[in-house]
């Protein structure tokens, strides 16, 4: 598997990024805050509004270092990418699959299978690790419900029905999500998803984690020559990285949700890391984001065994491995897309 | 009319990729996948020296041209010669503006030392075929220069060798035309392949995806 390099997160909102030789320089007014050699980086994410120099953007575009601009609240704004890799054949195959209802539903089915399977094993893991702290019977019952739905999903070749099945499972999953929060209950509770804006601390973190994950899967897809904007489960909409969202489905629970839960349960993140706006929106403070991002980077370096490739790799390379496997399937080397099924 | 665009030629240098592994060639030349590794970077460095001075150089009975663009219509390939030496020879061909007759001799620069495989010879023979078409002559010898040994080796360019090149290039053209990326047997050579991370040779011998999915879902 390829080597994982670092991602540089620039957290300060009034920082300006510039190029100096082969280095990225982070400036605030005229003061230099930091300097990092660019060849060590596989991506740069900035939450600032002052921007980056055209020279830096040019360097990033030429050297395949995706430079991502986020709002300071972590919403995706834009990404500087270079010339797309010349794999026209692969992209055309991707478009043909995307236009074909049957092919799309087969791929969508595997993405959703992965999502439900991984969520099921999150529930199972919780019953195993904390039997004294949760309603085991309820967890087991939901897990069995998931198993039944997995069979239905496996047999389903209709996109609309697939989305329906996914929706039903999501309701059950969300009902148990709050039960998996075992610490700091008074500060962190989950009463369902709220977005744009997130209305509680858990939702603020989930949204942030999802946007980071979408960035990672999007970059991985482009690195293997696929078009991140043309999806199978998510249909294309201007500016939406549909395929990245597709590929992310199987990782949402096992990667992003579990990460957020562990930040709360390990008390890494606390109530003081959030502020509430007048409109009810809950945002992370700069300090909170810093804690969040450094934990995210640490998480990416944890080693796991890839269930299909049976190779040890860092969590952070999983989106890349899956993108590669998806490309291999579209290219005809693999008869099916091997979903990341993790226990 | 058969309208031929300039970019429809296959890259001559692809012959060595194809000889090494047809899948590697297809990934690079059809699917445009490329990853640098230490070998490819080293190779660029060696070639920088050879290709840099595009001016011709005259030494006694020799005219030395570097980085010459070459192509063959019959093979549908194009590329570059690191060095072509035009050696004065009464049995040679005339070059415009020169009083003497010359025999063109291709010289190819390589990193490392002479290889066990024959890919370098095949590449040189392909260059010779291009030069033969461009200068309307016969080329029976060329040289391979190796960076590590700092020696050039004489290579006899027999008809059999050229015939082999034609057969390989015909296959390359047919794959390219069909946009076909072959699956091939994996082997020890996969270890030194620059595209290992993209090709995933291990995939070829792994359990089928449906078996994997079934097995996991039943657990």
From TrEMBL, chain A:
Gene Ontology molecular-function annotations: endonuclease activity
InterPro entries, per the entry: Cas1, CRISPR-assoc_Cas1, CRISPR-assoc_Cas1_C, CRISPR-assoc_Cas1_DVULG, CRISPR-assoc_Cas1_N
UniProt EC number: 3.1.-.-
Binding site for Mn(2+): 166, 234, 249
Cofactor(s) this protein cannot do without: Mg(2+); Mn(2+)
Alphabetical keyword list: Antiviral defense, DNA-binding, Endonuclease, Hydrolase, Magnesium, Manganese, Metal-binding, Nuclease
Pfam families: Cas_Cas1 (PF01867)
This protein's record includes keyword 4Fe-4S: no
Subunit-structure text: Homodimer, forms a heterotetramer with a Cas2 homodimer.
NCBIfam families: cas1, cas1_DVULG
Function, as annotated: CRISPR (clustered regularly interspaced short palindromic repeat), is an adaptive immune system that provides protection against mobile genetic elements (viruses, transposable elements and conjugative plasmids). CRISPR clusters contain spacers, sequences complementary to antecedent mobile elements, and target invading nucleic acids. CRISPR clusters are transcribed and processed into CRISPR RNA (crRNA). Acts as a dsDNA endonuclease. Involved in the integration of spacer DNA into the CRISPR cassette.
Family named by the database record: Belongs to the CRISPR-associated endonuclease Cas1 family.
Protein's name in the database: CRISPR-associated endonuclease Cas1
TrEMBL record, chain B:
InterPro entries: Cas4_exonuclease, CRISPR-assoc_prot_Cas4, Dna2/Cas4_DUF83, PDDEXK-like_dom_sf
Bilayer-spanning residue ranges: none
Protein's UniProt keywords contain Iron-sulfur: yes
EC number per UniProt: 3.1.12.1
Keywords: Antiviral defense, Exonuclease, Hydrolase, Iron, Iron-sulfur, Manganese, Metal-binding, Nuclease
Obligatory cofactor(s): [4Fe-4S] cluster; Mg(2+); Mn(2+); iron-sulfur cluster
Free-text comment on the cofactor: Mg(2+) or Mn(2+) required for ssDNA cleavage activity.
Chain spans, region Disordered: 39-58
Source domain of life: Bacteria
Residue stretches making up the DUF83 domain: 14-200
Uppermost EC category: hydrolase
Protein family according to the UniProt entry: Belongs to the CRISPR-associated exonuclease Cas4 family.
Task performed by this protein: CRISPR (clustered regularly interspaced short palindromic repeat) is an adaptive immune system that provides protection against mobile genetic elements (viruses, transposable elements and conjugative plasmids). CRISPR clusters contain sequences complementary to antecedent mobile elements and target invading nucleic acids. CRISPR clusters are transcribed and processed into CRISPR RNA (crRNA).
Record's protein name: CRISPR-associated exonuclease Cas4
Organism: Exiguobacterium aurantiacum
Gene: cas4
């Amino acid at each position: 598997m390829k080597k994982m390099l670092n991602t540089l997160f620039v957290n300060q909102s009034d920082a300006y990024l510039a190029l100096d030789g082969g280095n990225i320089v982070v400036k605030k007014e005229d003061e230099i805050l930091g300097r990092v050699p660019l060849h060590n980086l596989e991506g740069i994410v900035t939450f600032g509004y002052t921007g980056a120099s055209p020279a830096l953007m040019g360097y990033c575009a030429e050297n395949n270092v995706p430079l991502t601009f986020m709002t300071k609240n972590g919403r995706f704004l834009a990404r500087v990418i270079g010339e797309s890799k010349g794999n026209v054949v692969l992209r055309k195959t991707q478009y043909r699959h995307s236009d074909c209802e049957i092919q799309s539903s087969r791929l969508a089915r595997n993405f959703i299978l992965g999502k439900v399977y991984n969520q099921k094993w999150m529930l199972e893991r919780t019953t195993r690790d904390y039997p004294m702290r949760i309603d085991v019977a309820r967890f087991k019952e939901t897990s069995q419900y998931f198993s039944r739905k997995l069979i239905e999903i496996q047999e389903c070749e209709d996109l609309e029905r697939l989305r329906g099945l996914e929706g039903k499972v999501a309701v059950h999953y969300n009902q148990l999500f709050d039960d998996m929060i075992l610490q700091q209950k008074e500060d962190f509770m989950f009463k369902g998803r709220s977005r744009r804006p997130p209305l509680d601390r858990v939702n603020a973190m989930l949204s942030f984690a999802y946007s980071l994950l979408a960035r990672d899967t999007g970059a991985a897809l482009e690195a293997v020559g696929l078009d991140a904007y043309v999806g199978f489960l998510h249909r294309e909409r201007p500016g939406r990285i549909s395929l990245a969202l597709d590929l992310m489905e199987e990782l949402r629970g096992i990667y992003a949700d579990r990460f957020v839960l562990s930040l709360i349960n390990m008390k890494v993140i606390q109530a003081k890391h959030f502020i509430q706006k007048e409109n009810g929106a809950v945002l992370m403070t700069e300090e909170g984001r810093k804690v969040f991002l450094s934990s995210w980077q640490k998480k990416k370096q944890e080693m796991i065994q890839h269930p299909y490739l049976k190779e040890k790799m860092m969590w952070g390379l999983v989106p890349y491995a899956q993108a590669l496997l998806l490309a291999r399937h579209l290219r005809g080397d693999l008869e099916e897309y091997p979903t990341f099924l993790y226990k | 009319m058969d309208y031929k665009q300039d970019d429809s030629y296959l890259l001559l240098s692809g012959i060595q990729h194809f000889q090494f592994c047809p899948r590697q060639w297809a990934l690079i030349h059809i699917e445009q996948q490329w990853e640098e590794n230490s070998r490819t970077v080293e190779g660029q460095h060696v070639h920088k020296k050879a290709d840099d001075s595009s001016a011709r150089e005259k030494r006694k009975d020799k005219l030395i041209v570097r980085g010459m663009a070459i192509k063959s219509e019959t093979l549908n390939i194009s590329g570059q010669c690191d060095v072509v030496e035009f050696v004065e020879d009464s049995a040679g061909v005339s070059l415009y503006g020169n009083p003497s007759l010359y025999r063109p001799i291709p010289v190819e620069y390589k990193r490392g030392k002479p290889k066990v495989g024959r890919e370098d010879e095949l590449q040189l023979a392909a260059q010779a075929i291009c030069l033969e078409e461009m200068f309307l002559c016969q080329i029976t010898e060329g040289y391979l220069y190796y960076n590590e040994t700092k020696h050039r080796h004489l290579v006899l360019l027999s008809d059999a060798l050229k015939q082999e090149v034609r057969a390989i290039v015909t296959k390359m053209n047919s794959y390219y035309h069909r946009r076909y990326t072959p699956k091939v047997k994996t082997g020890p050579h996969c270890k030194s392949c620059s595209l290992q991370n993209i090709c995933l040779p291990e995939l070829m011998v792994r359990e089928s995806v449906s078996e994997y999915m079934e097995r996991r879902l039943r657990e």
